Amino acid sequence: MMIIKEPKELQQELKRRRFEAAKQGRELTVGLVPTMGYLHEGHASLIRKARANDVVVLSIFVNPIQFGPNEDLDRYPRDAARDLALAEKECVDIVFMPEVQHMYPQPTKTKIQVEGLTSSLCGASRPGHFDGVTTVVAKLFHITKPDFAYFGMKDAQQVAVLSQMVADLNMDVQLVPCPIVRESDGMALSSRNVYLNEEQRSQALVLSASLKEAYELVQEQKSTTAAELKKLLTERIEAKPLAEIDYVEVLTFPELEPISEQTRLSDYEGDIIAALAVKFGSTRLIDNMLFQKKDVALHV
Ligand code: AMP
């Protein structure tokens, strides 16, 4: 497994590998898995999907420009040795682990901004967050030129925003959305779960439990409306004293548009997402459930 820190070095290494393959009449496919490290089974699931490619590139970079001034950039969990051991075990070919000065040798004056899709949900609570995400992912795409890039539906809005960016800018990469990986008790895996104390962790189970209850309700009662779903989720979460709701939304996916509160979910033609962001102490957790009518329809 190669470990590379410099963008230029990764570009040259991949160019070399593609050239060698072409000499033998083969075309090399490259799969990219972008992460911020402190890896867990959710990240491992993306790496396993990426192994369908000839070369798997895992990037580990805590991207400062996607954090707001009062967010957790400084305390974001990091453990490079553990990450490298997991990457090795999962047969990653190249780990791209740049320092901030490698990715941003000078303050960036170029930013990519996707309009509309970034104004709701996490985009509303974290101004500028998605500009940081789209900008760093575009940089990673230019550095790696991946054929496929793997993203978790844990960050469903990120998938919607990046799909729009790829379509709008004719980026030659296929995004592969991957299902949310959960603990056996339902809790969605997240690097930020380490911040939670025992009581917060226990109460935070309400996120996945209420989403599951909502899903079952929609399966059983075809007449369930968006408003009823929102009410159920809100009540369940508010019943937990340590929970502080940032948002509970029921929107279309991937357009992230509001649906009329009286719309029965079963009558709506496309996919619908129930998305939550809830704080437990200073830790903000997100989770979601997709109500799918068809295969995930993204602009790719
Ligand atoms: P992060 O390191 O948190 O920026 O996440 C890197 C990638 O892993 C993103 O595409 C996430 O959506 C994905 N990811 C994080 N947690 C999970 C999870 N529990 N299940 C599936 N994918 C995940």
From TrEMBL:
<protein>
    <recommendedName>
        <fullName>Pantothenate synthetase</fullName>
        <ecNumber>6.3.2.1</ecNumber>
    </recommendedName>
</protein>
<feature type="binding site">
    <location>
        <position position="181"/>
    </location>
    <ligand>
        <name>ATP</name>
    </ligand>
</feature>
<keyword id="KW-0963">Cytoplasm</keyword>
<dbReference type="InterPro" id="IPR014729">
    <property type="entry name" value="Rossmann-like_a/b/a_fold"/>
</dbReference>
<comment type="pathway">
    <text>Cofactor biosynthesis; (R)-pantothenate biosynthesis; (R)-pantothenate from (R)-pantoate and beta-alanine: step 1/1.</text>
</comment>
<dbReference type="Pfam" id="PF02569">
    <property type="entry name" value="Pantoate_ligase"/>
</dbReference>
<keyword id="KW-0436">Ligase</keyword>
<dbReference type="InterPro" id="IPR003721">
    <property type="entry name" value="Pantoate_ligase"/>
</dbReference>
<dbReference type="GO" id="GO:0005829">
    <property type="term" value="C:cytosol"/>
</dbReference>
<feature type="binding site">
    <location>
        <position position="66"/>
    </location>
    <ligand>
        <name>(R)-pantoate</name>
    </ligand>
</feature>
<feature type="binding site">
    <location>
        <begin position="152"/>
        <end position="155"/>
    </location>
    <ligand>
        <name>ATP</name>
    </ligand>
</feature>
<comment type="subunit">
    <text>Homodimer.</text>
</comment>
<comment type="similarity">
    <text>Belongs to the pantothenate synthetase family.</text>
</comment>
<keyword id="KW-0566">Pantothenate biosynthesis</keyword>
<dbReference type="GO" id="GO:0004592">
    <property type="term" value="F:pantoate-beta-alanine ligase activity"/>
</dbReference>
<keyword id="KW-0547">Nucleotide-binding</keyword>
<feature type="binding site">
    <location>
        <begin position="36"/>
        <end position="43"/>
    </location>
    <ligand>
        <name>ATP</name>
    </ligand>
</feature>
<feature type="binding site">
    <location>
        <position position="158"/>
    </location>
    <ligand>
        <name>(R)-pantoate</name>
    </ligand>
</feature>
<feature type="binding site">
    <location>
        <begin position="189"/>
        <end position="192"/>
    </location>
    <ligand>
        <name>ATP</name>
    </ligand>
</feature>
<feature type="active site" description="Proton donor">
    <location>
        <position position="43"/>
    </location>
</feature>
<keyword id="KW-0067">ATP-binding</keyword>
<comment type="function">
    <text>Catalyzes the condensation of pantoate with beta-alanine in an ATP-dependent reaction via a pantoyl-adenylate intermediate.</text>
</comment>
<feature type="binding site">
    <location>
        <position position="66"/>
    </location>
    <ligand>
        <name>beta-alanine</name>
    </ligand>
</feature>
<dbReference type="InterPro" id="IPR042176">
    <property type="entry name" value="Pantoate_ligase_C"/>
</dbReference>
<dbReference type="GO" id="GO:0015940">
    <property type="term" value="P:pantothenate biosynthetic process"/>
</dbReference>
<dbReference type="GO" id="GO:0005524">
    <property type="term" value="F:ATP binding"/>
</dbReference>
